[in-house]
Specification:
- The chain is of the alpha+beta class.
- Among the domains are: 62-220, Adenine-n6-DNA-methyltransferase TaqI, Chain A, domain 2, CATH 3.90.220; 320-518, Adenine-n6-DNA-methyltransferase TaqI, Chain A, domain 2 (Alpha-Beta Complex); 580-659.
- 42% of the residues lie in helices and 15% in strands.
- The chain is built from 21 helices and 26 strands.
- The strands form 9 sheets. A 5-stranded mixed beta sheet has the order 2-10-7-8-4, covered by helices on one side. Strands 5-3-9-6 form a 4-stranded mixed beta sheet. A 4-stranded antiparallel beta sheet has the order 13-21-18-19.
- A hairpin with a 7-residue loop joins strand 7 (152-155) and strand 8.
């Protein structure tokens, strides 16, 4: 390694997003290539390999002995000439797999034998405690094996690259392998080698690597004294990385505190003059206060809270009208509508009037401009309806069914919606057919997402959502969107939510949520101001994002120039909605405790312990990747039974994905 080059490029790497992580990986790569230390090359690693081969021939457990691997060429490994070129399997005496006792037999579980799975291999180097234990019967009557202490445990599925040393005897599951290393291989040096090997997993659902592929990975073995020196140098440099990381975290914490105090000063302004002064101070220090695009999200939240509390309006922008007068106008328009409409609409209108007569929303203590007023969601609406259909006979082409997953960040995402037929739509939307300008509000999984129905689009309300229709000439629908998105409203909404595991808000709870009501002209003015400020925020976020990308490219180039390993630039492709369907049946396993974070198992328990994965995904809400991650976690804990194996994923296959026509 060229020390001068390393020092010259250090800043590019360390200060890039994830820079310390890049430094750590670069240290390992340089160590495995022999570039961290100098050597006189008086000895060779070949005698060590010969000794390992002899031990394999004499090993008492011949069935577990790793066979001699194919010869490797110099082109396949970057290493000093005196190192012995080999493969990972040449450094390993034996390899042992594992298995899982039947979860349906309680005698196999809660015994005295620690049983390790992927979830037990965390960031720690040593493995001494496992989440699960099995009995002697469970060990004897399954394919699991008891692994002696001081073996190297690696993942071959659901966690490629994870590695640990067991300090106690334990059993392992089928996703783990145990390596027995000879004295000729320093365990810590083996860690370095393993973490720099290119593990390419295959499989439709869960990436895994076959045992023969794992053992055939290229490696190189230095003399034992060099192994120790390399390990010592890596430990020294990793300690420096720890210090650097702590310093960066401290700097980030100070920056967060400074930004928060500056934002609080803006929010606490008690006069227009003070607000302008604190706002100018904030604008002058953007560069110091905001370091990443996600920092801007908090700023947007502050803007919304200021907007919906009337603090963004100057005195000259305020009107002589009042919020009370606006509520009276809405009430009159609603009464007029109820007398003119017919059929189902008339039924909805009369239902609204009946609800309003008995509604008693709880007042909140929060200052508003004197001519504004608090009102319930029901009071400001022409109509509010909830989704009352349960099953979904989807079709290939048809009308958009808007699920909770199709509403994000104030937008209705129409790229990956399920479709229903015209006949189904007329049945499901018979209470109130959505039109352009209506608002869809999600009340569960996730709760509080909101979007406006686009003009000229025919959509249907999905489960766990509500349709809010306003009198558009009296109330600005975008103002209501901003109110709902504001942090203060989201807090009130969460306080009104019910449920232990999956928080949600019921229909009457949504109707009783309080919103600030300014005159319509002031609503329009506030919407225009927020729009302009959000444009500024988005511009700032784009600048920060571009800054991070540039820093990342510089760091990648620096790492490549030092290590000699070219890093292909990430392709920026447009996001495409996956045309997939979750198809596996799922069943409840061991019932989790109340305190366990197990939303999927909780949902299953409410459905008699069984549900199609697609239906569970719909009830869970959230993104598909988050659903998969949570499902894997709950299966690993045994709260949900693992479905039949997928041969391509070598056994997990809890959720299979199929392409739609």
């Amino acid at each position: 390694m060229d020390a001068q080059q390393f020092l010259a490029e250090f800043g590019h790497i360390a200060n890039a997003p994830g820079g310390v992580g890049r430094l750590r990986q670069m240290i390992l790569v340089l160590a495995a290539a022999g570039d961290l230390i100098t050597t006189s090359a008086q000895t060779s690693g070949i005698p060590l390999l010969l000794s390992i081969e002899r031990q394999k021939r004499e090993h008492k457990e011949q069935k577990k002995v790793v066979p001699k691997q194919a010869i490797i060429s110099a082109a396949q490994s970057k290493a000093p000439a005196h190192w012995a070129l080999c493969r990972l399997g040449d450094l390993t005496l034996t390899i042992t797999g594992g298995g899982t006792p039947s979860k349906n037999n309680p005698r196999y579980w809660a015994g005295d034998i620690p049983w390790a799975s992927v979830k037990d291999l965390k960031d720690q180097k040593y493995l001494s405690v496992t989440a699960d234990h099995i009995s002697i019967e469970g060990l004897a009557e399954s394919s699991s094996n008891l692994i002696p202490a001081n073996r190297v445990i690696v993942c071959t599925r659901m966690g490629l690259g994870k590695i640990a040393i067991n300090t106690v005897a334990l059993a392992i599951n089928q996703d783990l392998k145990a390596f027995e290393l000879p004295a000729e291989v320093n365990q810590d040096f083996f860690f370095i080698l393993y973490k720099t090997r290119e593990l390419k997993g295959t499989g439709t659902t869960v990436a895994g690597i076959r045992q023969d592929q794992l053992l055939a990975l290229p490696a190189a073995l230095p003399p034992i004294e060099e192994q120790s020196r390399i390990v010592a140098k890596v430990d020294e440099l990793m300690s420096l990385c720890d210090t650097l990381e702590a310093q960066q975290q401290q700097r980030r914490s100070l920056q967060n505190n400074l930004r928060q105090s500056t934002l609080q000063a803006v929010a606490a302004a008690t006069s227009p003059h003070e607000l302008r002064a604190t706002w100018a101070r904030l604008a002058d220090n953007f560069g110091q206060l905001f370091d990443a695009p996600e920092d801007v999200a908090g700023f947007k939240g502050l803007i919304l809270d200021l907007a919906v509390s009337g603090q963004l309006l100057n005195i000259e922008h305020r009107t002589t009208s009042t919020g009370t007068a606006l509520l009276d106008a809405i009430a009159a328009a609603r009464l007029d509508w109820s007398t003119k409409c017919e059929g189902q609409e008339r039924k909805e209108a009369l239902g609204m009037l009946k609800k309003l007569r008995v509604q008693t929303p709880v007042a909140i203590e929060s200052e508003l401009p004197g001519h504004w007023i608090w009102a319930s969601m029901l009071q400001i609406s022409q109509a509010i309806v909830d989704c009352d259909h349960k099953t979904a006979p989807y079709v290939g082409e048809g009308i958009h069914l808007i699920r909770t997953t199709d509403i994000r960040n104030g937008r209705m995402l129409l790229g990956n919606t399920r479709k229903i037929s015209e006949e189904t739509y007329l049945q499901w939307a018979k209470r109130l057919q959505p039109t352009g300008g209506d608002i869809f509000f999600t009340r569960e999984a996730p709760m509080g997402e909101v979007a406006i129905v686009p003009d000229q689009e025919k959509v249907c309300l999905g489960q766990r959502s509500m349709l809010i229709r306003l009198f558009h000439d009296l109330f600005n629908n975008q103002f209501l969107i901003y109110v709902i998105q504001s942090p203060s409203f989201q807090i009130r909404m969460r306080e009104a939510a019910i449920g232990m595991t999956v928080k949600h808000i019921n229909v009457s709870g949504v109707e009783e949520l309080l919103v600030p009501v300014p005159p319509k002209a002031e609503q329009d003015r506030i919407v225009a101001i927020v729009y302009q400020l959000f444009r500024m925020c988005d511009h700032l976020a784009d600048q920060l994002s571009q800054k991070q990308k540039t820093a990342g490219h510089l760091a990648s180039s620096a790492v490549a120039s030092i290590t000699g390993i070219a890093i292909a630039p990430e392709k920026e492709e447009p996001v495409k909605a996956p045309q997939t369907e979750v198809v596996a049946p799922l069943r409840l396993g061991t019932l989790p405790a109340v305190t366990d974070q197990s939303p999927l198992a909780t949902l299953l328990s409410r459905q008699k312990g069984s549900m199609n994965a697609g239906d569970l995904f719909q009830r869970y809400g959230g993104e598909i990747d988050a659903f998969y991650a949570q499902l894997k976690l709950e299966i690993s804990h045994g709260w949900i039974e693992a479905p039949p194996s997928d041969p391509e994923a070598e056994g997990f296959a809890s959720v299979r994905v199929k392409e739609q026509a």
